[in-house]
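Blinded run. Sample ID left blank on purpose so nobody reads anything into the name before looking at the predicted structure. Input follows.
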Amino acid sequence: MKYTQLGRTGLKVSRLVLGTMNFGPQTDEADSHAIMDAALDSGINFFDTANVYGWGENKGRTETIIGNWFAKGGERRDKVVLATKVYANMAPDGQAAWPNHDKLSALNIRRAVDASLKRLQTDHIDLYQFHHIDRDTPFEEIWQAIDTLVQQGKILYAGSSNFPGYKIAQANEIAARRGGTIGLVSEQCLYNLAERRAEMEVIPAAQEYGLGVIPWSPLHGGLLGGIIKKEVQGGRRASGRAADTLKDPVARAQVQAYEDLVDKHGLQPGEVALAWLLTRPGVTGPIVGPRTADQLDSALRAIELDLNEDLLSGLNEVFPGPGPSPEAFAW
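Blinded prediction complete.
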C-alpha cells in the first residue's frame, strides 16, 4: 500500500479509502467485518462512513457494524484513521426531523458526535466531516462547536463533503480569523472520469487551502466499471446513476469508447478509473465501497497500475472535462 499526507496535516493515510456505505444495506455484518479485516491486512488504514449510512429505518447501522468490528480488538481501532459525517436527518424515512436534530447547529453537532461515538464504540473520531453545506448556520458557530470537540478529545480534524469552492474558502477564512482551529483539512467530492466538474473550482480551492481531496463514486455508480460489456455478456445491469447516464446515446457512445480504449491496452475499466484518479493533482485517495472481497481485490490492483502517456491522453480525449475556471466559461 502507498500512503500520503491528508492535505496539509501530518496525518498519513492510504491512497485508497475504504468506503462503508454498503455495510448493512448490501453486505451483512459478517462479510463487512471480513472486508474490513482484508482491507487492514492490505494496508488500507483510512475508513470512511457517515452517521446516516444504513438508510431508511436502519440509519446508523453502518457505524454500529464498524463499532462491533472495533470491539473485536486486535488493535483494529488503533490502526484505523476513522472518518464519519454529520448533517443528515437521523429520523426514520417518512418522519420529519425534530427541531435541531439535523444539519450543523452547535447543538446537533454535539448530539451527533456523541451518538456516533456510541455506535462506533470509540472515544474519538479522527476526521469529522460536514456531509453538506448548512445555509442557515454561520461558520462562526460551527467552528466554535468543533473547537470544543477538539478540546474534549472527541475529534481530531474537520473536513467537508459536497462543498462548492466558495464555501471551502469561506470556511477556512473564518477559521483563520477566529484562530485556535486548523479549519477544514479535506474535501470529499464527486469526482471521476465521467464527472470532472470538481476540477473547475472545488479542487483548486482545496489545493489553495491545503485540503486533501477524497473523491467519492470513483466509478460513477458502476458506469466506469465495464458496464456495457457486462450487459452484453448477460451480467450485472446498470442501475442508478449509471443507468440514467446510459439512456443518453451520446453518453453511451462515450462509455463504449472508454471500454474499447481500456480493452486495447489489456486492462480492466474499473481499475483504470481508480488509477486515473490517483494521478490527479490534489487527490489524496478515492473512496472504494466494495460489496464483496473480490471487489476489494480489484481496487487494490489499481494502486500498482501504471498508466502510460498514450492511455492517459486517450482517456482525456474520451472524457475531456470542463477545464479550470474561469476559462471553462469565459475567455
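Unblinding after everyone has recorded impressions. The radius of gyration is 20 Å.
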